[in-house]
């Protein structure tokens, strides 16, 4: 076993001691000057130090016992093909290492390259409006296309839409879980999870077998914001749990942005609060690129994709003008009125197929009228751009409305 493996084992073992987390591990390492030196100490002396230093009673523990638990966690992780990073590994995410309380151990499954510095987190309520879902999907798709990793928590609602948007465009996305990576939670996100471990990445500070716990989710939010240069709040009421991530971001010295909103709707009271405190409204991806282009440009992959999507590689200087804010906010108000009208009209109708609208409904209608249809025929019939069709098909497939078969043929499932 090499030194790095030893350190990982020791760090995992320390987590097996009651009430010992990352902050207290930091204090112990500082006291003993190395992780290894902690385990050279006698259990009795270590226990006395912990009780004196942290002022709480510790149950008796055996070094051999907690090391055995750590080795068992490592063994199970290997069985699930879960990788383990320690804070001392060179692959450990740079941005996360800079926060006040980084996790000493990260478990991961997927592509470590997705934990690049160029990352933006997208968060919000688990029960978003349709406008917010579309916003999260669209901005995540655009960020991902520029090789910017979209970070979120794989929860229902905004998190899921952000991951779906990134999946639709190069799969530059990372999910931070509040449980062990061997557990998919919520279970409805299994298709998103499978795509993430295939081409994106899933990470957690919790070991295999750790079940979801409501106390874990606020804790994991510091990792979501810590991985990112900026956090975008899409939709939050005044008491939304998603605001915890924003608090972490601000405490970590990271930028916070918000989606356009209707301040009269209670669903956006959290957005309005952040706006009054100085958060910038992101009407379009260029609003965030203007602020971070010089930082993002340190990544060659970002520069290549920027040249592809922007003429000459120059970000249009649109600015966050009051006129843009008014236009976007008015559009959301109009959409809200339109949705209420649609709901009233369809309220008493029997639904015989998925309740889809717009381009999604158009694609589903084409596919459902055939036993199977090739993607080229779909593109020809819709007269949409290939990238748009691909994104919509991915969304429909992950939501369980269609299925892709061999040869890029699609068939309806409902």
TrEMBL record:
Residues 353-408 form the DprA winged helix domain. InterPro entries: DprA, DprA_WH, DrpA_SLOG, WH-like_DNA-bd_sf, WH_DNA-bd_sf. Residues 85-292 form the Smf/DprA SLOG domain. NCBIfam families: dprA. Belongs to the DprA/Smf family. This is DNA-protecting protein DprA. It comes from Brachyspira catarrhinii. The gene is dprA.
